[in-house]
Each structure stands twice: as C-alpha cells, then as structure tokens.
Amino acid sequence: MSNIVAKTGNEAMAEAMRQINPDVVAAYPITPATEIVQIFSSFVSDGKVDTVFVPTESEHSAISACIGAAASGARVMTGTSSQGLALMHEILFIASGLRLPMVICEVNRALSAPINIHCDHSDTMASRDAGWIQIFSEDPQEAYDQTILAMKLSEDIFFPAMVTTDGFIISHAMSRLEMYSDKEVQDFLGEHKTPYNILDTEKPMTVGSIVLQDFYMEIRTQMAAEMFKAKAKIQDAYAEFNKKMNRNYNVIEKYFMDDAEYVIVALGSTAGSARYLCEKLRENNEKVGVVKPRVFRPFFAPELVEILENAKGVAVLDRSDMMSSTGGHLFNELKSAFYGNAKQPPMKNYIYGLGGRDINMSDIEKVLHDIKEFSVSKVKDSDVKYITVRE
Amino acid sequence: MKDFFEIRWHGRGGQGAKTVALLFADAALATGKYIQAFPEYGPERMGAPVQSFNRLADREITVHCSVENPDVVVILDQSLMSTVDTTEGLNDGGVLIINTVKKPSEIREAYKVRKEIKIFTVDASKISVDEIGSNKPNTPMFGALIKATSILDFDKMLLDTEEKLKKKFKSKPEVVAGNINSIKRAYQEVVAE
Questions:
Q1: What is the ipTM, given to two decimal places?
Q2: Strand, helix or coil at A39?
Q3: Is B64's CB within 8 Å of A169's CB?
C-alpha cells in the first residue's frame, strides 16, 4: 500500500532513513542537508527508530564514527553537504578501502570560496575518486527511492554509497512523494549484511592495518576489479528494486532517445527540466532527447557510448568545473569514454548553474540551438562553454 | 503551452510566505494534483521582502527551474507593491491578489497596474485578527486564491486543511476553527474589479 504525501527532498531522505532504521547515525549539521539529520534525530527521540544517534563535533568525526560502527557490524547512515563532505574527504577513502557498507545522504552544494550555500555538483564531484558509489536524484521521489536502494546495494557489494539531491532546488522543494510501508522497505532490505565484525570475539581480526609494498598493490587492484564487477550488480539492484517496489528506474535514463538527433546529457534536477523542454519541442517535431545518468560512480562508459554514438550532436551539461581548462566532470568522462570508438558524435560541454545560478527553459533551449550549430560547423574552436553567466 | 499552473507569493519575513506555499501544495495534493512548493532562499530577515512559489498540475511536474511567468501573484502585504516589482513576469490575463483594505480599482490606480492583469483584493489581515486573534494573513489568502482562480475544489481543500490543522493543533482546537473560518471568510469577501 503506497501512501501519497507532500515532502521536500530533505524530508523524503529523512523518511527513507526512518524506514531503513539504521543501527547508527553519526552526523554534523550543514546547510542545506541539516534538516535530514535534524528530522531523523527527532525520529530517534520520539522512539520511531532503534538508532543510536551520535552528534559529533565535525563531519570528519561523523564519518569516522560511521566507519567504527560499520566495522562493528552495524547498519550505518549519515547526511552531509559541501564543506562537510570535503571535511570527510580523507575518511571517505578509508570507508571504501575497508569495504564498509554505509550510505551518505548528500545534498549537492558549491564549495568555498566564495562562500555559497546553493547548488552545484562540486562537492560530490570532488569525492568521485574515493571509491564510493555515487547516485544522483532528480527529485524527492528519486531521493527517497534511491536512498533505500543504495542501502541494500551497499550491503550487497560492500562499497559505501552516497545518494545526492540538488541543494535547495530539491532539498527544500516540496513535491508529491509516494511512500512505501515500513514493512515493504524492511522486506526489500532483507537481512543486514556486513563484511566482518571487529567485535566478534570468535573471529578476532585486525582492520586498517599497515600494508606496504608487499600487498597494497594487490589489495587496490582487487578493489578496482570489484568496482568493475559492481556495475552488473548495480544494474541488478535497480532491476530488483523496480520489481519489488513497482518502479521503472534504470542506471541511465533515456528520454525520447529512439530517434533523437540532438541530445542533452545532464545529472539531477536539470535533467527533469530538460525532459520537459524536449517534450514540448517534440510537439514541433524537433528530434531532441535527454540522457540522465543516475549513477556517476562507477561510470557506465560503454553503456553511455552505445546510447549516444548515433546522435548528431551531444550537449553535456556540467554543474561543476574541474578547473583544469578541459571543462566539467561529466564531459571529461564522456569524452574519454568515446576515445577509440568508431562513431564520434560532435560533443560540447556547457558549464552552468554554479553556486545555484538558475538554469531556465530558454537557457536549455539555447544549448540545443548551440549544439546544432556546433555540430554542422566546420570550425570547432572551443568545446567548453560557460552558460547562465553574465557576459 | 505549459502544462502547469504557477503561483508566486510575496510576503515579508515572518508573515508565513514560505509556510503558505507548503500548506497550499499539501492541500492541492489532497485534491489529487501534482504539486511543487519552494521558497526563494536568500538573506531572510524579519520584515524583509521574501517570495515563495507553487506549481500545480494534473500530471507529473519535472521542471525544476525558478518560476518566471506565474499565472497568479499573491501579495501578503500591500506595502511591498511600492518597493518590489510584484507584477514582474505576470502575463496578460494574469491574476494579482492582494491583502489590502483598498478596492482593486484603487490598487490599479495607485500602482499603475496594466489593464490586462486582473486584480482581486481582500482584507486578510482584518479577517485573521477577527478570527485568529493576530495578523496572520497567509492562511486566509488560500480562500481568496481559490475563489479568484478556481484552481482547486474549495470544499475538498477545506476539509483536508481542517484535518491537518486538527492534527497539528491537538491542544488548541480554537486555532483550527479560527483558521477555517478565516479561509471561508476570505473566500466570500475577496472582491474583483
């Protein structure tokens, strides 16, 4: 029995956490993710969950406490954003290196300086190499669903996962949310799985020991191989979620892609706006489409190439910049994915919406015009363009 | 043609412009609509001009940009009209609803509102003082908004709002009756030109 309610992205994620009922949540507040753990902490004090809530003095401590708890066999979650995720940075690698399942509800927000509390993807992208599964959500419904999905997935593959929403745009925007019953969520999650338990006195073990030239290489190579294998398991996890929870999610979403000539690739909320625009442009027989990767880590490179290779032009929208003179994160991944492929569609990067700058319908429509021009033009001086910016 | 209805609320920090957008979305959801409600986050201060937004539709809403061309603008505080461009982006045929003691014709005259925009006025502050005991114009504006636009089924919305208020104010039943009466009165008392 589903229950239809009105919730913001943060409320939706807090509800998902309540229904997951983790053993431990350790957290430190930060805008715009504060509400997630704030609401969750009231679930704790109201006795609605069995969770031990650890209010730490920093995000560095919060994620460290999560690691300790997960290594002791607990089901663990936290929430953060921006500088908070940046402060967790060194510990993120430890969580994945120790192969500990856990979920961070991450709200995408710009990084300082200058200080900005609004949405872009700089924070999540800055942790892309930390060995975490990274999942983007378009709206509160997806944030809710994918938080539940990620908890199970993380315990199936023993990699930590972060599920993100766009700061304020989704975290503070209320929309229609279809919730499952607590039992349905618990049935989906099933028995809690943990790779090991350091408190198990029957099997004493050391976790986090020093490994030098002798075995570090092997361990990291194995980890890379496991991440490679995780791709199939992530696809299976989505399929299982769809079946049990009556959804229709894919690792990469395609909209109007059967005959699309010009395609927008975008993460999170912007993909939703682009989808609406394409729907309207389709009424005038414009062959445009949208591709929305949900999972950024691991990167589904061959799958994206297959979807995009026949397009006449691909516009890659990035809400983050690598500050490398080569454009944004999604663009760099896609460009690299196409290397050596027989078909090479013209591809251009549009960096937009940094620090919460709004991207509206006409901005996205201009991107579609620009990619058409870029694709037919013989002169390709620059393939990176900054939009939604004062000129 | 867009497939959704957009509302922009103008208020002053503390008047409940954010809350009213959330409450209105929740009420609209109960009548079967797809909804969005979001505030404009800036430097919020008591008394400073603030805005919030709604989108309503009979289908899934996937647009996540800001609202640029609202169908309706609701103003919780008439004084904002001298300092904020409250009709910005409002298309011809758009609706302006204002909490004021003035008549629509007086508002049009005073703020030079172009004739293509329909003006409705209601003294929501007085209604809320009478019914709730304090100047809380946000909830009564529900009534005025529905009367002016027919966007929702009034009776269904009222029933649902009553249920929600009853849950929220278990210990203060008089608050529930006051709010419901103020919505009803604003529905009846809102005037067009």
A1: 0.94
A2: helix
A3: yes
Residue at which a domain ends, from A221, A245, A269:
A245
Q: Do B61 and A358 lie within an 8 Å CB cutoff?
A: no
pLDDT class of A1 with cuts at 50, 70, 90: very low
Pair (A198, A322) in one structural domain: no
Domain containing A140 equals 3-245
Say if residue A71 is in the same domain as residue A173.
yes
* Structural domain ending residue among the three candidates A228, A245, A262: A245
Q: Residues A181, A55: one domain?
A: yes
User: Could you say which of A117, A174, A276 has the minimum Cβ distance to residue B25?
Assistant: A174
Task: State the sign of the Cα–Cα–Cα–Cα dihedral A238, A243, A244, A248.
Answer: positive
Alpha-carbon span A273 to A268, nearest angstrom: 10
Question: What is the number of other CB atoms lying within 10 angstroms of the CB of residue B172?
Answer: 11
User: For residue range B32-67, what is the model confidence (pLDDT) as tens digits?
Assistant: 999 999 998 776 688 899 999 999 999 999 999 999
Chain A interface, Cβ < 8 Å to B: 4-6, 117-118, 138-139, 166, 168-170, 172-176, 269-270, 272-273, 275-276, 358-361
CATH number reported for the structural domain that contains residue A351 in this entry: 3.40.50.920
Cis ω for the linkage preceding B104 (within 30 of 0)? no
Residues A164 and A260 in one domain: no
Q: Decide if B35 and A6 are in contact by the 8 Å CB cutoff.
A: yes
